[in-house]
Amino acid sequence: MKLGFACKYLDSDGKQRFPFRATTRTKFLSLQHDERLALLYALAENNLTQLCLTLEHIAMLPAPLRMMRIGSDLLPLYTVAQATELYTAFLPDLQPFFSRCGELARAADIRLSFHPGQYTVLASDNPDVVSRALEDIEYHTLCATLLGYGNRFQDFKINIHMNGRQGFAGFKAAFLRLSEQAQRMLTVENDEISCSLDDVLQAAKLCPVVLDIHHHWVKENQFIQANDPRIEEVKASWRGVRPVLHYSISQEGIIPVQGFPDQRQLGIAKTKLRAHSDTYFNATLNDWALSFSDFDIMCEVKMKNLARDALYAYAQRQHRLA
């Protein structure tokens, strides 16, 4: 089992150690051509350098900690039309940076992923939203292929939700419009409001299903167990690749520090239950997440790798991880 963290690697004092840089669309468009070019190149070079430094650090960690989600702003503003043209011109100059990062990850067996944002909705009933979602997924696919991935099924994970008024039918129609490389990398996750695990399992023949156990609890008030029959369906969707689940818990002070919370007793709105905690403070829920022994776990908590490391130490004490 690998335990991953999302996007930002924190020092012991909670400060980001390898920060990406970004800019706004407004600032970018206010610049002249040469200034735009210089800005985008400097940002991309910085971000790829920081990614390399992150991967070099992760490569020195124990094998179960070699998993990370890369921030979507690796190439800032890439999908803005005026920026896309500029990126196309200098992407060959960035290729050595991409190649170095990919080589580092593969040599150290670091599992990598992207998670496009909440507005990447393939199942939307708005054609413009779907077009932008397809464009965003292909941007993430481009980054992954420049890193050297996309050559085989699930050598890299690009995860999205299946929310949207068109449901599975809309998701399927849009999925089939993606490039072959994007289709090989895409995964779909259940959410806590509109799209249940049962809904997402409809897509199992198209792409792997990422199980988010916190989302499932918020939506269903059920702590799904590792022996639930649906878990076998989730695993089968990965076609022999080790599956991934997402683990988060509600914020401190909202749920108890021990035991399985019951939403009926808490009396708290789902909108508040959705928010992620800083750390994994409930040992009962930690044992529950770690019981999914056939999965790698992406840790979705605010303290990022620090909380992940604490979960790893807890797992070692409980003899759940080597």
Description:
With 322 residues, this protein is α/β, with parallel strands linked by helices. It has one domain: Alpha-Beta Barrel (TIM Barrel). The protein is built from 13 helices and 8 strands. Helix 7 links the parallel strand 5 and strand 6. It is globular. It starts with a strand and ends in a 5-residue tail after the last helix.
Q: Would you kindly provide a brief summary of this structure?
A:
Helix content is 45%, strand content 10%.
List strands and helices in order, with pairings.
Blueprint: E1 3-6, H1 25-29, H2 33-58, E2 67-69, H3 81-107, E3 111-114, H4 127-146, E4 157-161, H5 167-175, H6 180-185, E5 186-189, H7 197-200, E6 209-212, H8 213-220, H9 229-237, E7 244-247, H10 263-266, H11 270-273, H12 283-290, E8 296-299, H13 304-317
Parallel strand pairs: 1-2, 1-8, 2-3, 3-4, 4-5, 5-6, 6-7, 7-8
Helix pairs in contact: 2-3
C-alpha geometry: globular
The total count of helices amounts to: 13
The largest sheet, given as strand count, sense and whether it forms a barrel, is:
8 strands, parallel, barrel
State the distance separating the first and last CA atoms.
9 Å
Q: In percent, how much strand structure appears in the residues?
A: 5-15%
Instruction: Assign the CATH topology.
Output: TIM Barrel
Which range best describes the helical content: under 10%, 10-25%, 25-40%, 40-55%, 55-70% or over 70%?
40-55%
CATH superfamily: Divalent-metal-dependent TIM barrel enzymes
**Class based on secondary structure composition and strand pairing:** alpha/beta
Top-tier CATH class: Alpha Beta
CATH architectural grouping: Alpha-Beta Barrel
CA-based gyration radius: 20 Å
The main sheet orders its strands as 1-2-3-4-5-6-7-8
